Amino acid sequence: MTIDRVTTGPATAGAPAGYTVEELARKVGMSARNIRAHQARRLLAPPVRRGRVALYDDSHVRRLDAILTLQRQGFNLVSIEAMLGVRASDEAPDGLTAMLQRLATERPALTHALTRHGVIGRAPDGTVRTVRPRPLRAALDLHRVRMGTVPALQALSEVLDSVRPLADELVAAVTARMLTLAPELAGGSRPSWADVDRETILLTQGVVNVLTEAFRLAVENQAEAHVADLLENHLGAELSVEDGSPVDNG
What we know:
Strand order of the largest sheet: 1-2
Largest sheet: 2 strands, antiparallel
Strand content: under 5%
Number of strands: 4
């Protein structure tokens, strides 16, 4: 389908002026609401206002095409923000930056996995940078139990792979439940798009905070119950030999 572009001024003025949000949505195959959400996240530049009409141009088309391409490759919005230069990187120590650069060279599959989950990203010059420092530091802290850097980051990647489907289900279920318990969260009558964008951002952060703390509490409770037993079972044979205890060889 050919999308007609909005024109302004005299018919002989030359090139068309741009797309309305509805035209842009049809052109790139994305809902108008998602386009506005990308604007709220600063992934997409705001349109140009011409009177009461907001107009987009081909630079917006290219940006949305890039976002869609990265999403099809499995990258989430946090990763895309980092890759497109929207999310600022953490000021990592030189040693950590050098380690990430070596990882990118020696373990490209692991680097790709961590990038896909939004833990690290690439700067425009190609250097690897920290995007989400907390999970990265949590994994690297495993050196205190003599776990090497690559195994620790591999464990982090596998954990993220495991919890991602669970997170999808929990976010949908918890958000739906919150809207049921407090219908006022959905906003008043006839809210503006700016109101919807603001409420979406606030509710998103609220869901993240509740789920993060609830999951942290559940994991802490289970870790106290199980980690010691699992470690003892794993090391039991070695500990018995080191203690000089008699070993039954049958």
